Input
Amino acid sequence: MMIKAPRGTADILPQDSFIWRYMEKTASDTAKLFGFEEIRTPVFEHTELFQRGVGDTTDVVQKEMYTFFDKGDRSITLRPEGTASAARAYLEHKMYALPQPVKLFYNCTCYRYEKPQAGRLREFHQFGAEVFGSTDPVVDAELIALAATIFKNLGIRGLSLRINSIGCPTCRKKYNDALTAYLTAHKDTLCDTCNTRLLKNPMRILDCKSPICKEVASGAPYVLDYICEDCSTHFEAVKKYLERNDIPFSVDPTIVRGLDYYTKTVFEFVSNEIGAQGTVCGGGRYDGLIQELGGDMIPGMGFATGLERILLVMRAQNLLPETESVPQLFIASIGQTADAISLAQKLRENGVFAMCDLAGRSLKAQMKNADRLKAKYSLVLGEDEIKSGMAQLKNMESGEKKDININDIAGLIACVQ
Ligand code: HAM
Output
């Protein structure tokens, strides 16, 4: 039987891979303009990193992680997201000793055992950005501005930015009491997982995917109504910075996010054009994460955007670039393969996209191939051309022909630019 790719994974084929490179490059180049530097971390980490970082009562940790024991009997997990890994690397490499804040970005694959559907995969791609070492609300605004600029640079329109504040441990305590009182009254309708969450971490019930829990959650008190003065001042400052930057947003008190590390500002960019999985980007502040991982009380803030979802939005808005670059020159040959590949090599060393026949095709078939590849120019190398050093360069679109010296590489390059 033929082996297929596992459920929830997707091959990115040559006709699409340049679009992925385009998305990754646009996001990375934009982040660089904001002073971010790239970090690459391993695909797998010690399971404990996500249990402690993401939180062991979250859906991600309780239900969705790809966890296994390696041959050394260590519990290993394929990263379900990038923030915990970036925070681990920040600590492990003592980046707190660098001038703060430290601004990192990444393009990575992530793994979650979820039910696959449009925009939801088990292996998916995130572009993320994280800032460590500043509590200043200007960081929150800058990260939101970075996400908004990436979408703008990709040509995307009409995403709605929703922001909220979910407070700090001080105000969370008062809120948790109110929330627990409300949820306890609905205890019998909650799913089993949420019943255990009621004691340990009631806020996680608010992002349970079960429809019944969702229904209960819709009547729950909002954390925004319970935030302390410090969190409220912080949130007001973020809103002011966004207004000043002309970044439209709405305050949505229902956003709680699905990961445990968040404090204060949380936000999402949502599309209404790509179906149920409309959250294109999510993020927030996580002032306690580094401490949770064994470091000092070092604040952080970041976001990640799912490239599969960006692609869906770009497709819906007709924004996909057509094709990647086409060959500048196709070198056909009549029994002169060695000369053809040698000429192609010289051109390629000078940055020219040159192709030649690799399958012993007839001249007619080679020219058909040049057409299929949409080559801009072609030339034919036969015995005469090699002897005289002269060949005819054909403009494939106009059909116009021009004599060129095949030993004058610089001249040939100028002709095919
Ligand atoms: P998240 O909301 O879990 O946050 O994921 C961020 C984005 O990744 C989502 O908005 C979505 O676009 C995409 N995504 C998530 N799950 C899937 C999936 N199964 N298939 C396709 N795309 C998916 C985080 O991961 C946080 N680490 C974001 C962050 C960074 N917060 C602070 N810094």
